[in-house]
Amino acid sequence: MRNLALTAFAASALLITSCSDEPTAPTAVGSYVRGSGAYMIHSNVDVAIDAATSKTTETPAADDSTAVAQRTSTGGVEKSTAYVYENNAVTDTVVMIQNGSVVMQDYPIRYDVLGIVLDLGRKQVTVADFSKTSWTALKDTILPFDFPAFPGLKLSGSLNFVGKLLADETVTLNGTSLATKKVQLDLNAVLTASIGATVPISLVRTIWFADGIGIVKTEQKAAVIDLGPAGALLGTQKQAIPGFVQTAKRWSTN
User: Fold this and answer.
1) 189, 158 Cβ separation under 8 angstroms
2) Residue 254 gets which letter from DSSP?
């Protein structure tokens, strides 16, 4: 499974993107939390981007799979815990929660700062709220922490993810046509350096949900981030952030 990797350097003020949680007319929603024993095999494509030209290059990546180890239901809230496998080894754990029209998933938040990976732990993200046209997916603060490449330098920041409902779409996966609900997550972030430089980050992720199956496709656009004044410190003005496409190729519906 492709992680939520926010890749860039950033710095001083809180960037807030306005979002109205607009209710819409009630719509029927499906079930997106799979049962114990369910599995899904994904095909993956990595999307590289050239920082100078913004030209993208797609490269097939190894398949991975998820297998649901446990599903619970408490007061109408459905929760599943699944393990991610690559080359027969467990590489991650994925928790999905659905409460009516709201679907949540825990994401690992990692920043790759010119090859230095900063692991900021896991955050619960509202990946969909099918009762609204837009919603706050995550709003959180990153407390100051040391940046290993520059002793004495601290980074802090904010996460302000915004979700919005897109038009329903029929997709064909491995010869099977699926009616899906489609959402977009705008992954807005700002990191703050103690020297006072600021770089906003904005990535776009699109997710397709199929009733009774779960998330069947995820696409994150590759992007180039302008590092602004922080570029002088890091020795480069722009940083490429790769994207990916992950698509279900086989699944069970336990």
Assistant:
1) yes
2) -
* Both structure tokens of 152: 């004495």
Question: Distance between CA atoms of 71 and 39, rounded to whole angstroms?
Answer: 13
Give 25's Cβ-side CA count (13 Å radius): 0
For residue 134, which phi and psi values (nearest 5 degrees)?
Answer: -155, 155
Tokens 């802090």 -> residue: 156
**pTM for the predicted model, two decimal places:** 0.87
Q: Which residue has the tokens 């209710």?
A: 23
Beta pairing partners, 155: 145, 193
pLDDT tens digits, 47-102: 999 999 999 999 999 999 999 999 999 998 999 999 999 998 999 999 999 999 99
Report residue 155 as tokens.
């980074």
Contact 225, 243 (CB under 8 A): no
**Backbone angles phi and psi of 231, in degrees to 5:** -60, -35
